[in-house]
Amino acid sequence: MAETIKTDVLIIGAGPVGLFAVFELGLLDIKTHLVDILDKVGGQCAELYPEKPIYDIPGIPIVTGNGLTDALMEQIKPFHPTFHLGEMVLKVQKLADGQIHVTTDRDKVFEVKCLVIAAGGGSFQPKRPPINGIEPYENKSVHYAVRKMDSFRDKRLVIVGGGDSALDWTLNLQPLAKRLTLIHRRDDFRGAPDSVNKMRALVASGDMDLKIGQVTGLEGADGQLAAASVKGNDGTTARIECDAMLPFFGLTMKLGPVAEWGLKMEDELIPVDTAAFETNIPGIFAIGDINTYPGKLKLILSGFHEGALMAQKAYHYIYPDKRLVFQYTTSSTSLQKKLGVA
Ligand SMILES: Cc1cc2nc3c(=O)[nH]c(=O)nc-3n(C[C@H](O)[C@H](O)[C@H](O)COP(=O)(O)OP(=O)(O)OC[C@H]3O[C@@H](n4cnc5c(N)ncnc54)[C@H](O)[C@@H]3O)c2cc1C
Predict the structure, then answer these.
(1) Most buried by CB count within 10 Å: which residue of 22, 75, 240, 244?
(2) How far is the CA of 8 from the centre of ligand 1 (A)?
(3) Atom 6 (ligand 1): residue with closest C-alpha?
(4) What is the number of the ligand 1 atom nearest to the C-alpha of 54?
(5) pTM above threshold 0.90
């Protein structure tokens, strides 16, 4: 049986805009859950430019992508949002009674009064490596993410890539695997130097293998890998027997399932009104990079503004009989109590 979670608002996307929406909704006593396909919060800031400085966040002259994400997480702490990371929203359905049903790829079902789509440029999805005939093995013995480490116990594993994900999973899975081989196209790694040193130490002690070259072909049957061929940079070809392969070639943004939710779309974006950033379906809002309206700027500060106005309208769906009184955090003791500062 699928697990059903009932809450006020579900936010799809834990990028900067989704995170700040938790704050604006929280000030109005609205409880939130967030789902993100990534295994971390911060969206583009955390995934695409964690160390790069941002110079146009109002009142913060300079902050990195990770720094902004950390600050937003600190700011929303008083509202105890629940995160469902590493999970993709697949289906959205508005029911006749006004409730909205949302289903994830892990069969979790949310029943909510309002839905906020803060899905940015869409879902981050793994880049497929250029290996002919890889498709039949995908999700059977070729995996782009590690959902359960134990499923790789006592297996002959091949990890492909030279960045942090490839190195982190090499270090985490090497103790479980029967034998682990890391394959990278050159003997130079983009990952953290400490991880590179640890990986090289495991190779030196004979506890894992490192192969410099490119995977050129796969052998196996019915989706089950038996071996990978690797063409070395010296021109030689090696056959590496394996039960599973984990390629880490980075992530790319694709619109993904958003287009199938019955919402009006314009050039892969969701048109909204600018009074509340509501979509054509009442109770479903779209904020941040995913929306479009005349004059839209894909900036973090625009998404913050959109979240504030969205929350004002969402309040009326959550508390239809209550009047909303506008208050400042500077002077309202009630808001300060919610923030835990009064
Ligand atoms: C290199 C670079 C530099 C930038 N510099 C600046 C800058 O200096 N200033 C500025 O204001 N902006 C900058 N931007 C733009 C800024 O990063 C975006 O405007 C901002 O990230 C949008 O935030 P968001 O929360 O709307 O979406 P995102 O940050 O894209 O987050 C959306 C999240 O939704 C998730 N998601 C999508 N679909 C689903 C689904 N179906 N199920 C579950 N999760 C889903 C995604 O995985 C993602 O984590 C920059 C962008 C880039 C790429």
Answers:
(1) 22
(2) 24
(3) 54
(4) 8
(5) no
